[in-house]
Design brief:
By secondary structure, this protein is mainly β. Helices cover 14% and strands 38% of the residues. The chain is built from 1 helix and 7 strands. The strands form 2 sheets. The chain has a 5-stranded antiparallel β-sheet with strand order 1-2-3-4-7, covered by helices on one side. The chain has a two-stranded antiparallel ribbon with strand order 5-6. The longest helix is centred in the C-terminal third of the chain and has 13 residues. The chain is globular and about 35 Å long. The mean pLDDT is 96.
Length: 95
Amino acid sequence: MPQFELWASVPDGPSLCMLRNAEHAWLMYLREPGDDGLHSCGNEHRAGNAYFRLDNGQVDGYPLAWCIGIEACFAAIRFFHGNGGARLEHIDWQP
């Protein structure tokens, strides 16, 4: 699917969200419910925004600098799922 919002979570623990729109994708990691979280960081010098449709229909723009490769996003989800909600450390995470 070229456009989606995907969540993975551990009960009363961390959550990981992937937003994708075509070739643009990024991740948000919440350490616990209510956390401000961390987001993925790709090329920090990449200007502009990408727009993502959330599951509730809302469209939000996020910096292209937050976008990373789609396969890296899927690898982070697999790691999160297989490791009790841990975040993949080789992704650059920013507050």
